[in-house]
Amino acid sequence: MSPPSTGKPPAVLAPGGFPNLQENGSTMIVGIISDTHGLLRPEACRRLAGVHHIIHAGDIGRPEVIAELRKLAPTTAIRGNIDRDAWARDYAKTACVRLAGRSIHVLHNLKELNLDPSAVGIDVVVSGHSHRPGFATAGGVLYLNPGSAGPRRFTLPVTVATLELGSGTLRPHIHDLGLAGRAGEAIPPAQAARTIASPALPSQRSAPPNRAR
């Protein structure tokens, strides 16, 4: 199982400009990061500062990455295909966390999804692995890939995501960290939605492209 989350959400959420959970109980901001490969950039930390919870979707690279993220907010993390050292045994391959009344299933490679999320009441599926940020909705389930926040690969952007949760609210945002654009710039929703194929359910033969070399 993943190590239990530690720490508390910050009382004041000034750095990221996010709403204060204590003042606005209907809103929660979840920071989502993946494929750090041992590199936790200061730009990523600045973008995630002030969120209420962080999800790391695997390929962590070093345990210190999660230790630093937990200084920002309680963190749920899973291991990816590169996380093979002894420390990684403390992290499961999948996790399910319930935040603001929403059920979020986390795995590294979307191709390895072995359940029908809508059939078991999952609202969001978070994955990584492809290094390609994007989101899509299928069968009433939001599929979100934050992209890679670690070493840059080819011309792919370096990104993290945030997910706004609330009563009747499920709003994803992809944030470019500035290596392929202006620092902190959000990728327009229409563009982000085009970067991930609608995922296939386990009962279907085909699977969405989600490859990493």
Question: Can you put this structure into words, describing what you see?
Answer:
With 213 residues, this protein is an alpha/beta fold. The protein has one domain: Metallo-dependent phosphatases (Purple Acid Phosphatase, chain A, domain 2), CATH 3.60.21.10. The chain contains three helices and eleven strands; from the N terminus they run E-H-E-H-E-E-E-E-E-E-E-E-E-H. It has helices spanning 42-48, 63-72, 189-194; strands at 27-33, 53-56, 75-77, 94-99, 102-107, 124-126, 134-138, 141-145, 159-166, 169-176, 186-187. Strands 3-2-1-9-10-11 form a six-stranded mixed sheet. A five-stranded mixed sheet has the order 4-5-6-8-7. The protein is globular and about 35 Å long. The protein starts with 26 loop residues before the first strand and ends in a 19-residue tail after the last helix. Residues 1-24, 181-185 and 197-213 have low confidence and may be disordered.
Keywords for this structure?
213 residues; alpha/beta; 5-stranded mixed β-sheet; Purple Acid Phosphatase, chain A, domain 2; disordered N terminus
Q: Which structural class should the secondary elements be placed in?
A: alpha/beta
- How is the main sheet built? 6 strands, mixed
Work out the count of structural domains. 1
Q: Tally of extended strands? A: 11
CA(first)-CA(last) distance? 27 Å
CATH fold topology:
Purple Acid Phosphatase, chain A, domain 2
In CATH terms, the superfamily is Metallo-dependent phosphatases
| Relative strand content | 25-35%
| CATH 2nd-level architecture | 4-Layer Sandwich
Please state the CA-atom Rg, rounded to the nearest Å: 16 Å
Approximate helicity band: 10-25%
Following the backbone from N to C, one meets helices and strands in this order, namely EHEHEEEEEEEEEH
Mean pLDDT: 81
